[in-house]
Amino acid sequence: FLALKIANVNWQSKLNKAAHHTSDYSSTEAILRRGQPFNITLNLQTTVQPGDNFTFIASTGPCPAESQQTKAVFNLLEEDASGWSATQEPSEPGCMNFTIFSPANAVIGRYKLKLQIVSGNKVSSTLLGQFVLLFNPWCPNDDVYMANEKERQEYVLNDSGIIFQGLEKYIQQEAWNYGQFEEDILDISLAILDRSLNHRQDPAVDVSNRNNPIYVSRVVSAMVNSNDEKGVVEGKWNGNYCSGTNPLQWSGSVTILRKWYRGRYKPVRYGQCWVFAGVMCTVLRSLGIPTRVITNFNSAHDRNINLSIDNYIDISGKTLHLTEDSVWNFHVWNESWFIRRDLGSFYDGWQVLDATPQERSKGIYRCGPASTRAIKEGDVNLDYDSSFLFAAVNADYVTWIHYSNKRKERIYSDSRKIGKFISTKAVGTNCRVDVTANYKYPEGSLKERQVYKKARKLLGVRSTGKRTKIARPRRRSSVAWRQNMAQPAQKPSISAKLILDAPPVIGQDILFTLALRNLISDFKTIKVKLRASAILYTRKPKAEILQLSRSIKLGSEEVKEISFKISYSQYKNSLKDDRKILVTAVCETTQEASLLVEKDIVLQDPFLTIEVLGPTVVHKAVNVQVTLTNPLSEVVTDCELRAEGSGLLKEQLRINVARMAPMESLTVQFEIIPYKSGTRLLQVDFVCIHFSDIKGFVMLDVAPA
After folding, report:
1. Per-residue pLDDT tens for 489-518?
2. Is this model's pTM higher than 0.70 or not?
3. CATH level 2 (architecture), domain 6-134
4. Catalytic residue among 354, 383, 605, 685
5. Which terminus of the chain is more exposed, N or C, with fewer CB under 10 A?
6. Catalytic residue status for 331
């Protein structure tokens, strides 16, 4: 008996990767997608005997078993019950070519492939090697199938993107480096699955469930935050980040994921919502699940899911923390594309996932997948967490004044404030696309009211008592007036508006005006209490900046404009790591309603330009010139310029900027050697302890070598 000897195995890496859309992965390993054939060639040392029988064994996970679909045993020409099969193709003498088919519902992950040869009554077994199997959005039978090629290019293969932040009236673009194809990132994504609580409790069952995008995405949503399982990112929302990195300083997922992996799975400090969403997008795209990042402006965090966010202030306009509910200026989450076998085909398509640790879902900090169709239709009883997400885009915003004698009065109820300009990056460009219509029917429409009532009924929220609903059609209002609980709202006798005199720039004074109008013919005296606070994007106050009172006399139907100033010296110590200010004015008149006016201010970035000095070609060095300006009228020291970009820089580049004179402009040059062709995003971040980061980015078209 002469056992068949294999000299080596050729995994046809280039050919298979091109066919499977995995050429971008920076790995020599065979990376393949399920539901699609791949080819391997065996170069032989001995010849095949007639009657030799070939059996392939593909296995994954720590305890592979056919019953768990983590092991498949299949012969040539006959498809195994598991859906795996192999055929022999014509070949040159001294070698054998095989085509191997995996089923479209195979478990994803790292596999071993063995070949068993039965020759007469002798059995020999050879390990042919390992390969990684991923979800396949190109395969019509895969649960993650996406029919449109441009969408697949964007949501699976694009390794950079834009995350929208800021305010509903001042939406900003922030670049993010997903880098799902960079070195180690796929291995890290698989390690994330192996570190999960589910895997530690029962590895065999966990791995067998990895054929299902619902299961995999839910595990990733729990693992991207560190709350239960020593996951990737530790969240922090109190403005003190000295024991880690300020969340605003991250520019992408690659640095974070590598830090977690190389640091033996110690959670990376610190993240806020866009960081969790950026990292989750990287992991899910690397595993082959089409994913995008979504921003919801004026996002409700409704702890008790009663569809009402109660905001309490005192008579000076100071926010009181009498409730755990809150409204964030924006909140960022993810959507992934797959079908819902558990809910039915009506709920297929975009599914919301949120890795920011806000609330527990079945005992663990995770959220989703919730079908956007379920949220839009008010099906708040459906898995997973659709009620929490329905509230995030639909809750009412109610403001109360809380007096020192514990008496409170409702001065403002707005049922249109929450869930505005829900945004994502466009396919193929950096433009903003508004996807609000995927989440709700038009505000005030009959259909929207019906959905709202249905959700309220399913949640068991009473329409009387604790939750008082202003009768629809809804009232839009930029200011608020007191409303007696038992009586209809009285018409206000004054109106007020806060107006910025000029775009606010860091390092300069902020000038704004309070415009007061007397709406009736009676003479009035108005007591104005104005307050400015540095806030986080969650609208949680960090520091008081300004507090003052004025008494204003208004004649019959008179309009008065009162100017205010927040000087740089007043805000400079409060805005070193962020640039958000909330201004509130409470206007009181005797015997009448209190009026509340609010203005969110985001200080604008100073000047930063990026210039690429020559053509960008793969493996050819090119210089980049960055011009930046110190926005302050004082010397700044110990600054750093950081640059990163997938396909352009293998690791983040850091350049020390020792000193900048007041208002000085400076030019910094560095070299990049692109290693991938196509459209690439280069990000630059100027970090300084004196003010929050100044960021910029440029798109580069890199030509092949």
Report:
1. 457 789 999 999 999 999 999 999 999 999
2. yes
3. Sandwich (2.60)
4. 354
5. N
6. yes
